[in-house]
């Protein structure tokens, strides 16, 4: 899987960048066939006073893209929240794909028994 980490208006350390790449590698287990993952850190301009950091994770797999965003006071917190959301969304997408390819068979309906007088 190809993993890219980008920043906008923000500098993150090499340790956080390596941590983001490692966490993105773990996302592969939730959905087979993952081709690319992009992680974007940016300073949230809407909350200028608090200095929130926004993290966006995008995974492209099987021709579909799954995106999760999260904010936090620290870049590490935003990364943890975004990865958690992304894992949930990838699991849900995998379940939908499996359910679509192997739908459950309906139980043969039993006819109601008619009582005769």
For the CA atoms, what is the radius of gyration?
Answer: 21 Å
Structural category is alpha+beta
Spans of at least 5 consecutive residues with low confidence: none
Spatial strand sequence of the major β-sheet: 1-2-3-4
- The string of secondary-structure elements, in order, is EHEEEH
Profile the largest sheet.
4 strands, mixed
Helix content: 25-40%
Q: Report the average pLDDT across residues.
A: 83
- Based on CA inertia axes, which overall geometry fits? elongated
How widely separated are the two ends? Answer: 70 Å
By DSSP (H or I, 4+ residues per run), the number of helices equals 2
Total strands? 4
Describe this structure in words.
The structure is a single chain. The protein has helices at 14-26, 75-101, and strands at 2-8, 34-43, 53-61, 64-72. A hairpin with a 2-residue loop joins β3 (53-61) and β4 (64-72). 20% of the residues are buried. It is elongated. It has 117 residues and is an alpha+beta fold. α1 runs parallel beside α2. The longest helix is centred in the last third of the chain and has 27 residues, at 75-101. The protein starts with a strand and ends in a 16-residue tail after the last helix. The chain is built from two helices and four strands, in the order βαβββα. It has a four-stranded mixed beta sheet with strand order 1-2-3-4, with helices on one face.
Write the layout of secondary structure elements.
Blueprint (H helix, E strand, L loop, with lengths): L1 E7 L5 H13 L7 E10 L9 E9 L2 E9 L2 H27 L16
Parallel strand pairs: 1-2
Antiparallel strand pairs: 2-3, 3-4
């Amino acid at each position: 899987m190809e993993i890219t980490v980008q920043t906008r208006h923000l500098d993150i350390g090499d340790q956080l960048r390596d941590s983001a790449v490692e966490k993105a590698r773990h996302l592969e287990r939730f959905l087979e066939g993952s081709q690319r993952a992009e992680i974007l850190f940016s300073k949230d301009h809407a909350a200028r006073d608090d200095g929130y950091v926004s993290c966006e994770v995008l995974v492209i797999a099987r021709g579909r893209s799954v995106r999760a965003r999260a904010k936090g006071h620290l870049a590490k917190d935003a990364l943890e929240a975004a990865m958690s959301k992304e894992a949930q969304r990838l699991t849900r997408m995998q379940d939908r794909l499996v359910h679509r390819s192997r739908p459950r068979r309906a139980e043969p309906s039993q006819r109601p028994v008619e009582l005769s007088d």
